[in-house]
Amino acid sequence: MKTVLITGCSSGYGLETARLFHTNGWNVVATMRTPREDILPRSERMRVVQLDVTDPESISAALEVSGPIDALVNNAGIGVVGAFEATSMSHVRKIFETNTFGVMAMTQAVIPQLRSRRSGVVVNVTSSVTLAAMPLAAAYTASKTAIEGFTGSLAHELRAFGVRAKLVEPGYAPSTRFSQNTGVRIEDLIPEPYAAFAQPVFAAFASPALITRETDVAEAVWHAANDVSEQLHFPAGADAVALARAS
Hints:
Blueprint: E1 3-6, H1 12-23, E2 27-32, E3 46-50, H2 56-66, E4 71-74, H3 89-117, E5 121-125, H4 138-159, E6 164-170, H5 195-206, H6 214-226, E7 233-236, H7 238-246
Helix pairs in contact: 1-6, 2-3, 3-4
Keywords: Oxidoreductase
Protein name: Dehydrogenase
InterPro entries: NAD(P)-bd_dom_sf (IPR036291), Sc_DH/Rdtase_CS (IPR020904), SDR_fam (IPR002347), SDR_oxidoreductase (IPR051911)
């Protein structure tokens, strides 16, 4: 029986992904900064582990209690929407610490066990902002695009050891708590000169033609984790699929 470790399972994509892997018979290590066991199925195959991907000691502790894993799903992330001019560099660094360096740190910590067994997969969850440029998301886009390049290169160097690397690119999911865990209000990142520009952008967010469901992302992660071809990109959600086809 295979084991998957998923980061960022307290809500959204991570939570749904943990449920799907469990339903499909895997052992699941569902990690989150503040553990909550009540939101996941009670089962011997489901474990909730505390993990902060920006803390090296937390990463080491989580992997020690998790034991051998066959798949790592780097899902934990934070968002930011706003004018780049109004986004402090300290906040930009905070975004990168989780979305970019956290993913890299988790991957680097897990690679040795996958390489030594000559099997396994790393699935990195990015975003459809990497498929087409979108306004008011410059810092977030940069943090996710870095992981696109990182994963593409990683796939080449791990293939020699029988280890796979994949990308899942979710579209826009109104139900997710995007940017709510950053400590900065969206209103503070839209200064007056940008108000007129931002208004139609937020109106489009409020009534999107196509959206991504949390189940779309979970299913894409499942397919990516079990794919043995050299396919790298797995867009998730109707809007992401449309962007991928158009790009």
